[in-house]
Design brief:
about 0% helix, single chain, 4-stranded antiparallel sheet, 7-stranded mixed sheet
């Protein structure tokens, strides 16, 4: 079983920055892709960024160069550095982990709230 624990959410003003971190513990065998998704109340969970074991990165269309995902396999954490935040970035951000043969993430963290004030 895999556990994902997010930290780093909070309240920031428009144009500000936040860094999210996700600590990965447990059995990581078969896990290839780690990532971040976000969800607003009543909305669907949408991809923010993913990074594979080999370092391949994919960003959601709304990111537009403002976010950077990173992965440290040695300490089993991933990060999401967010700059130039906008009120529409307000959401719960979830850490995810996906096995190599899965289409969608197999594991989720509990989520961390990011609120961007106007």
């Amino acid at each position: 079983q895999l556990q994902l624990v997010e930290t780093g959410g909070g309240v920031v003003q428009t144009g500000g920055s936040l860094r999210l971190s996700c600590a990965v513990s447990g059995s990581i065998g078969g896990i290839n892709t780690l990532g971040w998704y976000r969800q607003v109340p009543g909305g669907q969970r949408e991809l923010a960024a993913t990074i594979s074991r080999g370092g391949a990165i994919h960003y959601g269309g709304f990111v537009k160069g403002r976010f950077t995902i990173s992965r440290d396999n040695a300490v089993r954490t991933i990060g999401l550095q967010m700059h130039n935040l906008k009120p529409e970035d307000t959401a719960v951000y979830y850490c995810s982990a996906k096995k190599s043969d899965s289409v969608t993430p197999d594991y989720w963290g509990q989520g961390t709230q990011v609120t961007v004030s106007a």
